[in-house]
Amino acid sequence: MSAERVLPSDDGGGVVERSPDTDPTDEALVVAAADGDARAFQELIGRHESRVLRVLRLMGVAAQDREDVAQDVFIRIFRHLSGFHRGRPFQAWVYRIAVNSAHDYRTRQGRSALESGWEESAEPVSTASGPESEAELRDLRLQLTGAMAELTDRERAVFILREVEGLTTIEVARALGIARVTVRRHLNLARKRLRVALGGNDEP
After folding, report:
1. Of the four, 53, 120, 124, 197, which is 20 to 30 A from 87 by CA?
2. What are the tens digits of pLDDT across the range 190-201?
3. Measuring CA to CA, which residue among 130, 58, 47 is closest to residue 98?
């Protein structure tokens, strides 16, 4: 039995009735938010904001624009809450909108946006292992930046969702609205391109 349900509020909207020991599901929050519960939508933002920002970063959205693009993602989500198909994973829908928003951003900004976004997204290099190790890591980071810039948008999205976010092939397919065989094809192409770019063997 569900641990939460949506009850009507005094103003005609919905509020989430919470079990004391269980957080409401995304679907319950979506229903409540679609019915006007602002707190439910804020909780959805809190749950998914970090992964949206991470995907935008990895898709090449520059640091100075990332918060604005993330805001656009959640505005799109809010505007289309009533059209969300209940019973489908909300997280997959969030990923799809984030990827599409990143694509729109790159279309506006051009190739330089991806290269800039990837350079800014790299983690700082630790100097604990000495200057030689630092230089090697910096070189590897630059190679990876260039390699990611060579992937198509679809290859990059599939690779990020599958290898970085840890989604299954089925989940990636749902998030991007493509067939599983298409996910596998783009993932194999992305892996091959990255291996070649990083100086590895191009054989699977």
Report:
1. 53
2. 999 888 877 765
3. 58
